Amino acid sequence: MGLSAFFRSLFVFLDSFLNHLLQKCHLSTNGEYGWKSLDRKTGKFMREQQPLTKKIKLLLLFNPLTDWIDTTHLMRLWIHNRSVKKGEEEATPASHNQIKTFVETYGINMADFEPSDIEKYQTFGDFFVRAHRPGSRPICDPDDPSRAIVVADSRVVAYESVVETKRLWIKGTDFTITNLVMDTQLGAQFADAAVASFRLSPQDYHRYHAPVAGSVKEFHSMPGDYYQVDPIALRSGVNILTSNARCYIVIETEHFGDVLFVAIGATDVGTVRINEKFQKAGTKVKKGDEIGYFQFGGSSIIVAFQKGAVKFDQDLLDFSRQRIQVSVEVGMSLGMANPMNKKIL
Q1: DSSP 109-159
Q2: Which of 84, 93, 205, 329 is the most exposed, having the fewest neighbouring CB atoms within 10 Å of its CB?
């Protein structure tokens, strides 16, 4: 048996064993086992609803011992291939049968979406990229171009510099803006950027929206892997965000200068898409415009502002420094433009 086959067999065995163990211990297989978050709407602390087996697998995969044993990353490669296959399966008519259970398990309010009737979705893939009902996500200060907004229904952390981001949240040894965009000139422009990191779980709405108003300056797409973007993975030494498939646009604005928007795929994401019209330089962008979408799976978005260009909302900064994510919705306030010559306190 080759090493790749060994790791594949080991992972399948662990998956079956963990599911059996949970049943014996009468533990919920899909409870609130995720990273600690604050719900911005209710002010209540919570843990993300997540399969316990997934939590345990993440702990097994993303730790120094696994890094030492699996130096060729064959186990993670198997997960990558499995993710691609999973995305293909969600596009088949048979996958429609998963929708009802998924909605009930995660308590998804279908009144927020259009269509709201789950029978209108032919496949799980169609359901996964469901659209919001108009008006269900109001845009904060829609006519104020100096206000930046939340780009996705997600959990967010926000930091005033890349250095702070790496110290508190993204632990990958190669994480820099240059490595994220694979462009030294653009990377230098955002070398010590303020960073908002949005993480989307499979149960979330998976379209993403413009944080600011302006015009598209450039667009690029990069192939890559589909590793997990769970906080356990992000806070390991594995270079998740600079390895995964991703697309980015730079938005030129009057009040914030250039703003970098990077959509990053993750486990089970079949495609990372920027809508075609926003792939063209010069295209006007309205705050809240739908920029693109992810297909099935968890995913992540990085929005970076040039140094000194933004003052993130204080609640986001305070909780992020405590390594607590804030659960947010599209259109909520993210921060305000900061005059480039004004020191951020």
Answers
A1: -GGGEES--GGG-SSHHHHHTPEEPTTSSPPSSTT-TTEEE--SSEEEEEE
A2: 93
Q: Which residue of the set 299, 300, 320, 333 is catalytic? A: 299
How far is the C-alpha of 269 from the C-alpha of 218, rounded, in Å? 24
Q: Which residues pair with 303 in a beta bridge?
A: 196, 261
Per DSSP, the three-state class of 185 is helix
Strand order in the sheet with 207-209: 207-209, 290-294, 272-274
- The dihedral built from the CA positions of residue 97, 100, 102 and 108, taken in this order, carries a sign that is positive
190, two tokens: 């955002």
Q: How far apart are the first and last CA of the chain?
A: 59
Q: How many CB atoms lie within 10 A of CB 6?
A: 12
Residue 102, token pair as written in the block: 């998924």
pLDDT at res. 82: 58
Note the pLDDT of residue 81: 57
Residue 161 pLDDT: 93
Question: Distance (Å, rounded) from C-alpha 170 to C-alpha 166?
Answer: 5
Q: Which listed residue (209, 255, 258, 300) is catalytic?
A: 209
Q: How open is the CA angle 137-139-140, to the nearest 5 degrees?
A: 125
Phi, psi dihedral angles at 247 (to 5 degrees) = -130, 150
Q: Is residue 247 within 8 Å of 292, Cβ to Cβ?
A: yes
Catalytic annotation present for 315 = no
What pLDDT was estimated at residue 236?
44
Instruction: Based on the residue annotation, tell me whether 192 is a catalytic residue of this protein.
Output: no
Helix axes 52-61, 3-25, angle to 10 degrees: 140
Parallel, antiparallel, or unpaired: how do β-strands 131-132 and 113-114 relate? antiparallel
Average pLDDT per 10 consecutive residues for the chain, totaling 345 residues: 59 60 51 76 84 53 52 56 61 89 92 97 93 97 97 96 74 73 92 92 92 97 61 45 78 97 72 92 98 81 95 97 95 90 50
Residue 209 annotated among the catalytic residues of the structure: yes
**Which residues are CB-neighbours of 313 under 8 A, at least 6 positions away?**
158, 333, 334, 335
